[in-house]
Write a structure and sequence with these properties.
The chain has 751 residues and is mostly helical. Among the domains are: 143 residues, Alpha Horseshoe (Leucine-rich Repeat Variant); 79 residues, no CATH class; 133 residues, no CATH class. The protein has 39 helices and two strands. Strands 1-2 form a two-stranded antiparallel ribbon.
Length: 751
């Protein structure tokens, strides 16, 4: 009866324009039937509301609120059949009203999102029909209220139900496809939810979400000037650290595009980006794709730091730039970026971000403190991979090059970890670490007052020449701390001397580092810095070293490097001739420290062609304690004499008349050696020395050039010899003390 007479009755009321009667009919259908406690009444009410809507025709739009609300209430009915009838009724209502339902879209969407997850297949099937109808209406209309819909979408997008997620993604794809709807403006509102859906267990949903994100990224590339990059930066930072590979890879790809499109707009988020990107650089081949994209992100971000960032005052360290993407030229070269190679600001994530319109001007700030904090944190983390450590050191080097003035404010805090990194297992890491330390030690910014080492505030800011160390009687005994106040060396800054002191301290406390990497580290430093300054300063420091055994070992290491390393060819030539006051000063400085090791002192004299003094030193060897280690070093010196470095020395053996002390010194070494292979080697060499009478020439009466050089050098060799004796006496006392302590320990063990 209801289905046959109701439409006729409603049409009569419409013809009479009797609005009150129409509302009264709808109210009765709603209150007494659709919302009744009896299932059959509810079913009849739903059918009646649908019939009423059909009868109203185009006028149904005037009564949609009254028609829709009771039907939506039935969506929550416990009876699946009633939920199906409610879905069918709403389908008929929407089909008649078409575009008139758009003002009620949010409540319809809310109801449909619940039905999408309904366990009953018939209800789900009916909801899908209604969903398609509603999508058609939205697609063909230009009156969709996107602003009003976004809050609901933002809320529903965090649903964990698979069907609800599928429903949400399908609607996002539809809205993206409508030309008149600019969903990109509201992407920051839903981006986080989209990335969460991307981690769904259903492959189908993940694929749909990938498509949706891909479409958004295409739009971003087409219209970068209208994109709110800043509002989405921290969202990407979070998901770049996701445990799910697909989420992480997708977020990293977005981050790469954001950095390349937005340029310096991304600088304020550098610390967060680095926090996410740096660990990915050490991924293995199982995550090769993520690693490659992260590498591009890292390189692109590094290029955004420019020298102008160092020139701004602390209060005005922001540069005003247009909030527009990079130029077309820079955007056309993503391949160039890919060919190359922070702590996350949590408070920033919880605060709303304001993004200006494209026509406005924005302030771009390089958060150097945050970047350095992240880099420092990664260096302290022993669990990070080699490639990450290398990237961190590259960042530090880049920052010291681009923003040296600001970076030197962080040097005191970075210095200890940079020194510890020298103990890294990887040679590549050590090389990068040395580059950073060398830049710190040589940068002119390190001379600025207030940026010097914290424990050497009295270091003079201006560069002065290295001095020859004072004589032993004049040396300060105030300990290692006073050394940190030594004047800066030429082309170096106040950190150079501090670096040398701490490097030697590290060698002293970590002998394996000295044994395994000592020569490698010093040789690389000689390439990166001034070799003369390095040897001069180390010799100066070792002169005051209290651990005599370490001093002897260190001098032996330095001497081996000096005599054998190709990197020190120029320094050897400088010492070989001693033509300049600087070279003679260097010789005196090295000599005083080399006295910690008698054999290395002789080799230094051989290198500098001070053969008479070498002979005088060897004469003193008779008063020393000759140990196995001592004889081993003499053996090594004999081997060195046969090397190409001492070719000039062997040729001077032909000039017997003018080099008598060279021959005497070599015979002295021969007499020290036991009957060994080294003894045989040196003995055969000396047998080759020609008879002086056979070597007489017309020019034999002229003094040799080497003799002229020696007599003109103005070096007090007597004082140097006395210094050698004092140092050796100290070593003898130290050995006796060590032997005494060892003997006491043995007695205690016996007792």
């Amino acid at each position: 009866v209801l289905s046959s007479s109701l439409p006729r009755l409603v049409r009569e009321f419409v013809a009479q324009n009797n609005t009150s009667q129409i509302k009264h009919v709808i109210q009765i259908l709603s209150q007494e039937f659709a919302l009744s406690q009896h299932p059959h009444s509810r079913k009849g009410g739903l059918i009646g509301l649908a019939a009423c809507s059909i009868a109203l025709g185009k006028d149904s739009g005037l009564y949609l609120k009254e028609l829709i609300e009771p039907v939506l209430t039935c969506f929550n009915d416990a009876d699946s059949r009633l939920r199906y009838y409610a879905c069918e009724a709403l389908y008929n209502i929407v089909k008649v009203a078409r575009g008139s339902v758009l003002p009620h879209f949010n409540v319809l969407f809310d109801g449909l999102s619940k039905l999408a997850a309904d366990p009953d297949p018939n209800v789900k099937s009916g909801s899908e029909l209604l969903d398609r109808l509603l999508k058609d209406i939205v697609t063909e209309s230009n009156q969709f209220d996107l602003v009003g819909f976004i809050p609901l979408l933002r809320e529903r997008i965090y649903s964990n139900n698979q069907y609800a997620r599928q429903f949400i993604i399908s609607w996002i794809l539809v809205l993206e496809s409508v030309p008149d709807i600019n969903l990109l403006d509201y992407l920051p509102e839903i981006l986080d939810g989209l990335f969460q859906i991307l981690g769904d267990n259903s492959k189908e949903i993940r694929k749909m979400c990938e498509v949706a994100l891909g479409e958004f990224l295409k739009e971003i590339k087409k219209n970068p000037s209208s994109v709110k990059f800043a509002e989405m930066a921290n969202i990407l930072v979070i998901h770049c650290q996701a445990a799910d590979d697909l989420i992480q890879l997708t977020a990293m790809c977005w981050m790469r595009e954001f950095i390349q499109l937005a340029g310096r707009v991304m600088l304020p988020y550098s610390s967060g980006i680095l926090t996410a990107v740096l660990p990915c650089l050490s991924y293995d081949d199982r995550k090769k794709n993520i690693k490659e994209v992260a590498n591009v992100c890292n390189q692109s971000l590094m290029k955004l730091v420019i020298p102008e960032d160092d020139e701004m005052d602390e209060a005005k360290q922001s540069m005003t730039l247009p909030a527009e993407p990079a130029s077309e030229e820079s955007l056309s070269k993503p391949e160039a970026a890919s060919s190359g190679e922070s702590e996350l600001d949590i408070t920033a994530l919880n605060q709303p971000l304001s993004f200006p319109c494209s026509s406005e001007r924005i302030q771009v700030t390089l958060n150097l403190d945050g970047i350095v904090q992240v880099l420092d944190c990664h260096l302290h983390d022993t669990s990070i991979g080699m490639m990450t450590r290398i990237a961190v050191l590259k960042w530090l080097y880049h920052l010291y090059i681009k923003t040296p003035r600001k970076m030197f404010r962080h040097t005191d805090s970075l210095f200890p970890i940079l020194l510890r990194t020298l103990s890294d297992e990887s040679d590549e890491v050590i090389l990068k670490d040395l580059e950073v330390l060398a830049e710190i030690a040589s940068s002119p910014a390190g001379q600025t007052e207030g940026h010097g080492p914290s424990d050497s505030s009295d270091v003079r800011p201006g560069p002065v020449e290295l001095h020859v160390p004072a004589r032993a009687s004049q040396l300060s005994s105030s300990g290692m701390k006073s050394l940190e106040c030594s004047p800066s060396t030429p082309t170096m800054n106040s950190y150079f001397y501090k670096f040398m002191i701490n490097l030697l301290k590290r060698f002293s406390s970590e002998r394996k580092l000295l044994e395994n990497r000592g020569a490698f580290i010093i040789r690389q430093l000689c390439l990166l810095l001034n070799a003369e300054n390095i040897f001069h300063s180390m010799a100066d420091i070792l002169l005051r070293e209290e651990d005599l055994k370490f001093a002897s070992t260190m001098v032996h290491t330095l001497n081996t490097i000096l005599l054998t390393s190709s990197e020190l060819f120029q320094l050897r030539n400088q010492l070989k001739d001693l033509k300049t006051p600087e070279s003679r000063n260097l010789f005196c400085c090295l000599y005083r420290s080399w006295c910690h090791n008698p054999v290395t002192t002789v080799s230094l004299c051989f290198l500098t062609q001070n053969y008479k003094h070498a002979y005088d030193l060897i004469q003193k060897f008779g008063d020393l304690e000759v140990t196995v280690d001592f004889l081993t070093e003499v053996d090594k010196l004999v081997q060195l004499i046969e090397c190409p470095i001492f070719t000039y020395l062997r040729l001077q053996l032909l000039d017997v008349k003018n080099n008598p002390y060279l021959i005497k010194a070599l015979y002295g070494l021969l007499m020290l050696l036991p009957q060994s292979s080294a003894f045989q080697l040196l003995s055969h060499r000396l047998q080759c020395v020609p008879n002086p009478e056979l070597m007489q020439t017309a020019d034999s009466t002229k003094p040799s050039a080497s003799f002229k050089r020696t007599t003109a050098s103005n070096i007090d060799y007597t004082e140097l010899l006395q210094h050698f004796e004092k140092v050796q006496n100290k070593h003898l006392e130290a050995r006796h003390q060590r032997a005494g302590r060892a003997e006491q320990l043995d007695r205690r063990v016996v007792l």
